[in-house]
Structures are given as C-alpha cells and as structure tokens.
C-alpha cells in the first residue's frame, strides 16, 4: 500500500511525520484541516485527482459542490492519517485505554481462523482511510505479513516503506524476487498483503471498475490461484467515534474449471465487487492520489 502524487513526496512525508510527532494530536488535525482547505481553494492536482476518482464512484447524482466537499474531506483525512499513524503505535494507544483501531469480533475471528490454518491468505487491500494503521494492528496481534508495495518506488515511497516497518510487517517493493518470496510464503500457509484498487503499470489488464474501464493489477489473483490461497478483501474506515474500523469480507475461494484465464477473470470480478462495496460506503475516504481513470483535468462521464 502506498500514497502517491503530491502527498507522497519526501517533503510532504517529512512534514506530515514531523507534525504528527511534534504537535498534540488535535493541533495536528487542525493543521490537516487548514491544509485541505488551502489545497481545495487552489484546486491543486492532488485535489483534482481525488475529486475525479470520487466522481466515478458516486456517479452523476453528486453535484459539483458535493464533489468538492468530498475531495476536501479526503485531503483532510489523508493528513489526519499521518497524525494518527506516526503519533504513537497501536500498542501505545491500547495501553493508554484509547484504542485507535477496532474490528467486528465475528469478522476478526473469521479472518484470524483463515490466517492461522495451513493454507495461505492473500489480503487484497483497499486504499481507504488509514490502512497502514490497520495493518499494524493485525501484525501487533501476532500475524506476520509480507506487504508487496509499488515496484520501482520513488524517494517518497521508499521513505514511507521505511516508516511502515514494524515487527511482523515485511515491506517489499514488487519485483520478480519479492513476488517469488510472496508465492513461497503463501504456499507455506503465510499471509501476503497488496493493494488492488489503483493502476500500477501500463501492462496491467483492462478491467471494469465502477462501470468504467481502467487498468488494475491482476497478478495477485494469479499468485493466489497458483498457491491455492484464499483472498480476503479488507479496507479501513474512520468512524464517528474517531476510531479506524477494519472491514473484512468473507474469504474468497477460487473456482477451478480448467480454464485458467476464465478462473482468474471470475476471481478478479469478485475481488473488485468487494472493493466497490467498501469504497462506495465512504467515497470521501478513498485515498488514491493517482488518476484511476482518465486525467483529472478531464471531467468524468456524467
């Protein structure tokens, strides 16, 4: 998982982490709010990218004012996630009796049982809200995971990967070697995490996402099928109580018909359907800072 574009540059990452560590949490939130308003007023590229992505989710029923508000809200949330992620660890929050991450007990038990049996589990992550903190929470509860991040990371992504490292979290940029490592981990019953709801390369397959064609990664589906691993789609959302809730879909099992291409396509459609469900529940919390569809300066189909 990664945050790209303007907010993924070393300057913004350093600034965000500095604010999180040096200032009280409430002041960090206030600074994030002011920064979001400044970027919305100036209609920066980050604002336009978020707005255009959200417009494809909510459809033509949303007014321009509503889209502007949702994009500004997403910018604020992006800053807030820096504050909450780098202020303290999930263990420190819990020791103080103020846990920042929650999950429904039945969803967690179902996911925990899947991650602890002899088969591998691939977590297909959605870039909503504070997924980094959610993964920290899972790792802190005794699950070792390998995260496949963007291939050929830029300076900002490398900095974020270094900040993400925690006990139980192995962050590896996608490469032939790290993909082989992930495949072996799945075959041995381990857990692999990767983001699935944003374009990665021009070689990505063309798929339908929210009714519009785009390019999204599909290699993780092939890897899961090859390792006989199940796929669990997971996302994170900020609730009114100020906590980040992890949402976990039921494990998806592959259908094997003998037609490998068709099996991959069916599993991909099932994964993306779960992604759409989670994103649609809170479009203003979908934090993808690269255009998922066309250029952000071009209006979406209305």
Give the overall shape. Answer: globular
Span of the ends, CA to CA: 30 Å
Largest sheet: 7 strands, mixed
Output the structural class. Answer: alpha/beta
Give me the Rg, rounded: 18 Å
Q: What do the pLDDT scores average to?
A: 86
Instruction: Give the fraction of residues assigned to helices.
Output: 40-55%
Number of strands: 9
Arrangement of strands in the largest sheet = 1-9-8-2-5-3-4
Beta-strand proportion: 15-25%
**Spans of 5+ residues with little confidence (pLDDT < 50)?**
1-6
Question: How many H/I helices?
Answer: 11
Sequence of secondary-structure elements: HHHHHEHEHEHEHEEEHEEH
Describe the structure.
The protein is of the alpha/beta class. It has two domains: 5-89, no CATH class; 91-283. 49% of the residues lie in helices and 16% in strands. It has a seven-stranded mixed β-sheet, with helices on both faces. It has a two-stranded antiparallel sheet with strand order 6-7. Helix 1 (10-22) crosses helix 4 (64-87), helix 2 (25-41) packs antiparallel against helix 4 (64-87) and helix 3 packs across helix 4 (64-87). The radius of gyration is 18 Å and the shape is globular.
């Amino acid at each position: 998982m990664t945050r790209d574009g303007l907010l993924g540059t070393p300057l913004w990452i350093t600034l965000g982490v500095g604010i999180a560590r040096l200032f009280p949490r409430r002041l960090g939130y206030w600074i994030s709010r002011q920064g979001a308003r400044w970027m919305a007023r100036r209609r920066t590229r980050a604002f336009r990218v978020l707005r255009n992505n959200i417009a494809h989710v909510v459809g033509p029923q949303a007014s321009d004012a509503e889209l502007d508000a949702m994009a500004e809200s997403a910018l604020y949330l992006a800053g807030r996630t820096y504050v909450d992620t780098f202020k303290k660890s999930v263990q420190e929050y819990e020791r103080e009796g103020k846990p920042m991450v929650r999950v429904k007990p039945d969803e967690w038990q179902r996911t925990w049982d899947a991650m602890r049996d002899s088969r591998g589990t691939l977590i297909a992550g959605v870039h909503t809200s504070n997924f980094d903190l959610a993964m920290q929470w899972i790792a802190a509860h005794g699950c070792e995971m390998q995260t496949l991040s963007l291939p050929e990371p830029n300076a900002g992504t490398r900095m974020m990967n270094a900040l993400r490292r925690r006990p139980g979290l192995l962050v590896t940029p996608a490469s032939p070697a790290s993909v082989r490592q992930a495949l072996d981990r799945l075959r041995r019953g381990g857990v692999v995490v990767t983001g699935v709801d944003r374009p990665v390369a021009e070689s990505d397959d063309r798929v339908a996402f929210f009714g519009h064609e785009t390019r999204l990664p599909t290699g993780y589906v092939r890897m899961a099928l090859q390792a006989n691993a199940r796929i669990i789609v997971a996302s994170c959302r900020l609730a009114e109580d100020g906590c980040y809730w992890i949402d976990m879909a039921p494990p998806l099992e592959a259908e094997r018909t003998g037609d490998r291409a068709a099996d991959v396509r069916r599993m991909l459609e099932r994964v993306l359907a779960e992604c759409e469900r989670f994103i649609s529940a809170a479009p203003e919390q979908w934090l993808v800072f690269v255009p998922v569809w066309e250029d952000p300066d071009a209006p979406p189909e209305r």
